[in-house]
Amino acid sequence: xxFQGSQxxxxxxxxxxxxFFKNNEIVSTLFDVLRNGxxxxxxxGFTAPRLADLLDEDRLVLSGRVENGVxxxxxxxxxxxxxxxxxxxxxxVLNVSAGMGKVKGSRVKSGLFSIDLLxxxxxxxxxxxxxxxxxxxxxxxxxxxxxxxxxxxxxxxVGDIQGRTDAELVLDMPTGSDxxxxxxxxxxxxxxxxxxxxxxxxxxxxTRFEYxxxxxxxxxxxxxxxxxxLTGINAVVDLxxxxxxxxxxxxxxxxxxxxxx
Length: 261
Hints:
It is a single chain. With 261 residues, the protein is mostly beta strands. The chain has helices at residues 10-20, 25-33, 138-145, 150-155, 256-259; strands spanning 2-9, 34-46, 60-72, 79-90, 93-103, 106-116, 125-134, 158-162, 164-173, 181-186, 189-195, 198-212, 215-225, 228-238, 244-249, 252-253. Helix content is 15%, strand content 58%. The protein has a 16-stranded antiparallel beta sheet that branches. The radius of gyration is 23 Å and the shape is elongated.
């Protein structure tokens, strides 16, 4: 069985498919992930050597091009919208390749997302998104991805951020995991903002930021805070167990007048 279509409304197709294939796990999970948009060109088919197996979940084959698509990242509150790219299903795995999109106010320049739709215990997935990131939205995004973590609690104290940077966001959810692993890596950027633990405004003239497995790295940090200047700082903050900061290198000019009233 094979179907072809063009300019297909995904939201309407979602309602029809969920009604028609009520007990088909792959269809149910597919449309839990793929929420909206237009399939400009789409081919859907079921292939099997026996008629009795034709509508089995692993027999579904799909390929198409999506415009203005909306994808929900499983096990998170994150939506990627405005997607323009290609989608396919083979052997129970959904792959989405995006050439553009939006996530939490940041522009997706490109992205890849794949999810195993036939793992009945959970839905392992992997996503890589290359962003033109609005730094004012980064704390909110990471808090939603890493709730109840020390990083989330500290990011809640950050405000009034201004700036943009190119960044890579990687989400990895192996089967059996309770939450996705999150990795973030930015290009060098400048920004301004505030942090409740430090009085006054903070100005970052340049740095690169990395987060992976409760480890934060700041590379080449030039910043002004409390009237003091930090230059070329390379620092590692370990958020596992007892929080620790290791400043690996970099000079600084500290204003004693601002630190000691």
